[in-house]
Amino acid sequence: MRLRKFRARAYRCIHDSGEIRVGDLAAFVGRNESGKTTILQALTLLNKDQPVSELDLCDEMTEDLKQEVRLAEGEFDLNHNEIRLIKETFPSIPEIKKIKIFRTNKNPIPQYDFGDVEISEAENSGLNSWENFREKFLSFLDTIPNHVQIKLDTGFFQGQAPETEEMFRNEMAEFGNNLQVLAADEPQVIEEWNKISDENDSNFQSLLVGTTEKMALENFIDSNLHPRFVYFSDYKKIIGNVNLNEYRKERTTPSIEFSEDEFDKADTVDNLFYLAELDVEELEEAKNSPSQLIKLLNTCSKRLTEKLNPAWKGDPIHVELRLNPNNVMSVVISDVHKDGTVTNTGLLNRRAEGFKWTFSFIVNFAAETQRAELKEAILLLDEPARNLHPTQQRGISDLLKSLAGSNQVLYATHSPYMIFDYAPGNLLVVELDKKKHLSRIYYDYWNADDLTLTPILYGLSRGLVESILDRQIGYNSRPIIVVETIADTMYLNAFDKFLEDPNISMNPLNIVAAYNKNSVLPLSIFYRNHGYNTFVLLDNTEESKEISAQLIANEFSKTQTIFFEEKTKALQSIEDYMITEDYLYAVNQTYAIKLRKEGYVNLTEQDIQSRNKSGIIESLNSIWEEHREDGWEEFDSEEVARYICEKIAIEEADFLSDKTKDKFRSLYRLIAERIRQQQNLMAGQNPDKKKMSV
């Protein structure tokens, strides 16, 4: 059974989530305290044994909660086996493919809704139900002689339905044995009992609870098919050593607790041994034979290694179980490299915290999900893989993907490395309305606020990062031009199309904007080291000159460092390729409305010249600084760049003069010339190397 839609209402900070679609592997993404955990916990209300606390009900909905409110409801698709099982048990009922389950504030148990499928609610004595079986049994008692009846214990048959098949069979067998003894002289009684027993003993699953068809179906689903939601938030950590003496005591006397330097809890040891298929009693017996002990531990270690490595990213690991003096079992980890060499062998507790967390998560989670009780369960994971390196987070994501085959997995995260499916229903955004302190859930994630969207955008950019890491792409790509600002990128792309000059066009330009000046150097080195013919475009500030010196020190040629210039005259920034009048037009249009209340008036060339600064941006920064107390804040050159580039895009850039166009042409010619010089330099160093196209 798979959850396909859900809705939560009046639960903690959720007024009404609305109807939300979910896939087999769905991620809830949002900022801290946005309500991700609340969503997962709301879904646990659909468990048949989950209590509802008054403290969990939404305080702001007191009036609504006076009436019956569906706190949580889910629509489920049944699999083929479930559809078949219901049809075989209830042949008269039309085929059921979907079920809605809901929990209200007024009813302590989950309820079922079968949609348009008509199911009888009339009393039906023909149903093979517990109630009807009990009626048959009570009628049978009337046929038993009184002297036999008073000696029989019939309490079981007069109470509630048995919870398990084992309980049912044991009670039936015990009653039958007693009856055989007490009614040995009453063959008719024995014969009648055998008929009743044979009718039900062979098929306990058909012994339904309920006297109506609808009640019987509901109780059948409750007993056999009701989905189970399992919430994980406490990811137990395995440190590295376990005292087997204490472990065995814990298993027989649960009041004993492990010390902090041992495994956190006995069940984490159970999980480790479960994956290794290690029986402690078998281990005790093997101690008498050193060769047998070595063989047993080697076999178990091999099983652990084989089961854990599929979820492990990076170089594989080898896991070894060692039995030390004082009956202490140690977990020893080694790194196995591609060339077959083994290094870094040592106790698990000596590894970094991230490594121990990853190892523990994989052990615990793999074991618990492989056990029968968690198969087909809907798993709810709160921030899995938190505080792990991105590579290991990707390993955990692969583990979740593999689980989604046998288990539906819903998890909360704000890590871009834990987002790998962007289909609606598999990526859901959770946002908090701060004014109302209420969570909102939706799957059109592209409409999320910027902070919520950040990890999603990083995830969407994964393909770009992987392409950068692919050296083959680098060697065959057009040159990369690293620039200092987003504005540089916008201008270079916009003016390249705007000029429509085939003699200078570099479209498509491979332009990469550094996050800030400090990132120019490492970003440039990174691209160069991954096979890209890399150039760096810099302004003429002292900081940029220092960056140029560092680039040369890192084996960049002088031709690869390009400063803004026109006819050998240094320009402070890319904005200086526009004549003052043209750029001021854009500034005045951008700020006229924005600063009207603050007394803004159009700036003139005289305003700029009076500052006596190196470039127009420096002059404008000076003007804005003088008006800081007037509410002008800081001059935003990027906002002006957006105005200019937008006007170019919609072909409304008539304010850009021919002089400005000519100045930008000189910039493209400068870049093209430097690329040609570098190609010649590379060809001279390696005559066999193919020249890269501009």
Task: Jot down its keywords.
16% strand, Rossmann fold, 6-stranded mixed beta sheet, disordered C terminus, 42% helix, 6-stranded antiparallel beta sheet, 694 residues, alpha/beta
Description:
With 694 residues, the protein is an alpha/beta fold. The chain folds into five domains: 130-207, no CATH class; 231-370, no CATH class; 375-449, 3-Layer(aba) Sandwich (Rossmann fold); 469-574 and 663-685, 3-Layer(aba) Sandwich (Dna Topoisomerase Vi A Subunit, Chain: A, domain 2); 580-656. Helix content is 42%, strand content 16%. The chain has 25 helices and 22 strands. Strands 1, 2, 3, 5, 6 and 7 form a six-stranded antiparallel beta sheet that branches. Strands 8-13-14-4-15-16 form a six-stranded mixed beta sheet, with helices on both faces. A hairpin with a 6-residue loop joins strand 6 and strand 7 (111-113). Helix 6 packs antiparallel against helix 7 (187-201) and helix 21 (580-594) packs across helix 24 (637-649). The radius of gyration is 37 Å and the shape is elongated. The two termini are 57 Å apart.
Strand content: 15-25%
Integer average pLDDT: 83
- Helix percent band: 40-55%
User: What is the radius of gyration?
Assistant: 37 Å
Task: Describe the sheet with the most strands.
Answer: 6 strands, antiparallel
In total, the number of strands is 22
- Quaternary state of this entry equals single chain
Determine the N-to-C terminus distance: 57 Å
Extract low-pLDDT stretches.
Answer: 258-264, 689-694
- What best-fitting shape do the alpha-carbon axes yield? elongated
The number of distinct helices, counting runs of at least 4 residues, comes to: 25
Would you tell me the structural class of the helices and strands?
alpha/beta
Give the tally of structural domains.
5
